[in-house]
Structure formats: C-alpha cells, structure tokens
Write a structure and sequence with these properties.
CATH superfamily of the largest domain: Mur-like, catalytic domain
CATH class of the largest domain: Alpha Beta
Number of domains: 3
Number of strands: 26
Structural class: alpha/beta
Number of helices: 16
Helix content: 25-40%
CATH topology of the largest domain: UDP-N-acetylmuramoyl-L-alanine:D-glutamate ligase
Largest sheet: 8 strands, mixed
C-alpha cells in the first residue's frame, strides 16, 4: 500500500516533541524516517541519534543537503528545514518510524525471541512451522532477513529502529502474516524495537555474554527483561528450566505459556542421534510422539520453544506436529558438514561459556569415541568470558585453541586469555591460524570421533583489523576432511594427540 505520509505536527505529539515555530501545523507530511543521513530524501524525517561512537547531530547538514524534509534533534540547530526537538532522539526513533509506517506490527503476528543462546534457531523454526502451515512468513535475525522466498542481508541481529519499522511495513505490504524476529539485548537497551507490538515474546535462556556492552550480568539480564516488562505482549513463552526464565515467568503480568520439564509445554522420552531426535511432546493443545531432524537436547529445547511460540501465535496443534519432522537445519547452528564420513565434523556458533559446554555435552550424547574442539574468542568483545570459554572447553578430549574474529586485537593475546582457562590435564594445541587449527583438529581425529568447530557458525568472513577476509568454517572443515582422506599414506596414529 502507498504511504501517504504523516503530518509532522502529529508526529510531534507522538513523541511529546516541540516543533520549530516556523512550521504550520499539518502542512508538512513525512513518508519515511531514517537515522542514516545517506538515506535522506524528500519526505524523509532524519533523526539524529547519539550513537556509542558517533553523534548523529553532526550529520544533520548532510541529511538536509540530500533533501530531508525535516530533522529530529535533541537541541535546536542551524538548519533551513523544520526541526522536531525531543528529549531523547534514540527513544523517539522507533515511535516516529512506527507512526509514519502506520504501526505495521499491529497488522501482523510478530513473534519476538530473546535470550543469550538459541534466538536464531528458534526464529528459524517458528518461520518453518508457520510456513508449513500455509502462513505467509517473514524472518529477522543474525544470519539474514527473509520476506517469503526473498532473502536480504542482515546488518545487526535486530535492525536499528527506523530500519526495523520500515522492514515490518514492507513485510506487511507484501502480504506477510507472521514475522519471527530475534530481539537482542542490544536492541532492547538501545530501543531498536520501541513501539513494536509482540503477539508472542519468547525467552530461551540466559548466561554470560556482551558484558563489554552491558557492564555486568545484572544489567545484561535487565535488558533482556525489558521485552517482558516494557512492551505490549500478547503471550509470553518462557523457558522456566532456566533460572532467569523462571524469574521472568514469575513476575510476568499477562498471558503466559511456560516451557520446561514442569512447564505447560515439555518433552519426554528423548533419544538423540546424528540423524535426529525422537521424543514425546506434551502441550495444553495435545500430545504426540515424533521424530525431528535436530541434533542435541539443546536443539530439541529450541524446537519445543518454537512449537510453543507457534501455538501461542495461533497455529493449530496438528499443523505444528506435521511441521516438526520437516524442520530444516539452520546454517552454522550445530551443522554437520562431514556427510557420511566416519569422522563427524560439526560447525556451531557457540561463542559463550554456556554455549560451548552445551555443544560438547550434545556431542557426548551422540556416543562418538572422542570429542575434539576448535575454539577461539572474538576480539573487542567481552573479555571476561574468554577464560571461562577455555574452562568450558576442557570437558572435551582434545582442545585446539585458535583465532576467532580478532578485530582490532592481537590474536595471540586473545588466544592466551582462552588458554588461561583450560584445565592443564586436557590435551591441547595452540594454533593462532584458524585454517591450520581446523586442519590439525581433523588430522587428530580417528573414525568415530566428533570434531566441533565452534564460535563463528555461518559467518562467511573473518574480521581482522577491520578487513573482512573470506573464511567459512564449514568450507574449511570440509576441505580439511577431504585432505585427511586423500592422504593415503597417512599413518592412523600420525599427528594424533592423547590416543
């Protein structure tokens, strides 16, 4: 549908702002809102937000030069266009964009999922279950954005507020009925989903991550809780097996659907293999025994949470049960890349202490001979978790510590921080070059072993000093395995550790 625009005067009332005195009420109409001056054009309201590193007010002149019809600022500037002055431009960005785009989240079923781990998998599963039930879907998340069959690149796990509302409007206008969206703690702290109505809000789990941004665990959890405390929610779907989830459920005032061993939705009789998992699902809508192509109990937990979110969103129980066996694997999320090879190689995005521990535990449940882990930690991010990741990796039989995305830090320094947490008794290799590290891990494996390549998952590039260098863990792991098999003269004991 065509956007006829919103009067600037009405937008001022939405955010309790003050208009420049030269503006005549109702004369100026806004058809789009942006925080990026490069996207400014006629009919656009440029909102100058104060970022973590750059103050958007310095781009007001650029936005006006590109044709912005008006600007939103937190103090009046010299500009020859109308100015909407508000107390906090960042907090105003979402409501302004939602209003201009006629509140798209109220015309669709928006399922928002937050938590430390599992957001990507749960949202993909919700999209899959809804799609198999014949519902027109959209997806917003870490790997990509999708509108039906159209895939768009992702910049942030959750886009900035103006981009998010514009995206929701595009989905609505294309006929989308249900949107599954990852809602990161950064998004909640920075107001990226402000003015969004969530028909369903899901919570996966909580453990250490992003302390470089939030400062401490209390503030990190507080950011997560905002989804359930500050937003218009139809039904909260919460994993109460997680202590933080249990707290959220206990304090939530509204429709609540719990997931967990003592929850409304739960699983039993679990048996997991490299082919998938069989289990019984019990819900208030009914029970069923089935097999799903997901590996590991943590992924089964994700599938059950996605099922609960789908049921809360109004998808019939029979449709959910019919859709579960057809769940597609999520790129880089416990993805088996070894095919039929006797050595199982799995690539996963696990990049937190808890995520690493869970990934190894899931590998143990597959009853391989040994578990070999390749692990690093990201640069310019939460430094406190690095040694804890090394400690978590110590539950493997062999650990290869290497580079992840070092960004602006020295890879050797990051590696040393991870190594500091390793149990001295565990067999280990330190190899800063990630390509060689993956090769060494595969070379150290024997038939029946499981190699876990953790930390980067689906990422196609490695970030080194601001340069994006093509590097896909999945491709490198496949190449390493092929090379391992081609070495006909390789002694089965050559290069092994701890056999």
């Amino acid at each position: 549908m065509a956007n006829s625009g919103s009067p600037l005067s009405s937008l001022a009332s939405v955010v309790s702002g003050c208009l420049d005195g030269s503006v005549v009420s109702g004369e100026i109409r806004i058809v789009d809102v942006t925080h990026d001056s490069r996207l400014a054009s006629g009919g656009t309201l440029f909102v100058a937000i104060r970022g973590l590193e750059v103050d958007g007010h310095i781009f007001v002149r650029d936005a006006v030069g590109r044709g912005a019809t008006a600007v939103c600022v937190d103090q009046r500037l010299e500009a020859n266009v109308p100015q909407l002055v508000v107390q906090d431009t960042r907090l105003a960005l979402g409501p302004l964009a939602a209003s201009v785009h006629e509140n798209p989240s109220r015309d669709m079923i928006v399922v928002g999922v937050t938590g430390t781990n599992g957001k990507t998998t749960v949202t993909h599963y919700v999209e899959s279950l809804a799609g198999s039930a014949g519902v027109a879907t959209g997806l917003v998340g870490t790997i990509h954005t999708r509108i039906g069959d159209v895939t768009l690149p992702a910049v942030h796990t959750t886009p900035e507020a103006s981009d998010f509302q514009r995206l929701l409007a595009r989905m609505r206008d294309s006929g989308t009925s249900l949107v599954a969206a990852e809602v990161s703690s950064h998004a909640l702290e920075l107001g990226r989903v402000n003015a969004t109505r969530f028909a369903v809000a899901g919570f996966t789990n909580f453990s250490q991550d992003h302390l470089d941004f939030h400062g401490d665990m209390d503030r990190y959890l507080s950011a997560k809780r905002r989804l359930f405390e500050d937003y218009d929610i139809g039904t909260a779907v919460v994993n109460i097996d997680d202590p933080a989830g249990a707290q959220i459920a206990e304090s939530f005032n509204g429709n609540l659907l719990t997931v967990g061993q003592k929850g409304h939705c739960r699983h039993s009789g679990v048996r997991t293999t490299v082919e998938g998992t069989t289990f019984t699902l019990d819900t208030p809508w009914g029970s069923a025994s089935l097999s799903v192509p997901v590996i590991g109990r943590f992924n089964l937990d994700n599938a059950v949470l996605a099922s609960a979110c789908s049921l809360a969103a109004g998808i019939d129980f029979d449709d959910v049960i019919a859709g579960l066996p057809g769940l597609a694997g999520v790129p880089g999320r416990y993805e088996i890349v070894s095919g039929e090879d006797p050595i199982t190689v799995i690539v996963d995005y696990a990049h937190t202490p808890d995520g690493v521990a869970v990934a190894i535990r899931a590998a143990r449940e597959l009853h391989g001979k040994r578990v070999i882990v390749v692990l690093g930690a990201g640069g310019d991010r939460d430094r406190e978790k690095r040694s804890l990741m090394g400690e978590a990796a110590s539950s493997a039989d062999i650990v290869v510590i290497t580079s992840d995305n070092p960004r602006s830090e020295e890879p050797q320094d990051i590696v040393a921080s991870v190594v500091a947490g390793l149990n001295p008794s565990v067999a280990s290799i330190t190899e800063v070059d990630r390509h060689r590290a993956i090769q060494q891990a595969v070379s150290a494996a024997a038939d029946g072993d499981i190699v876990l390549v953790l930390g980067r998952g689906h990422e196609p590039d490695q970030d080194i000093n601001g340069e994006q260098i093509p590097f896909d863990d999945r491709e490198v792991a496949r190449e390493a395995l092929q090379q391992h098999r081609r070495s006909a003269d390789l002694d089965t004991d050559s290069g092994s550790i701890g056999r």
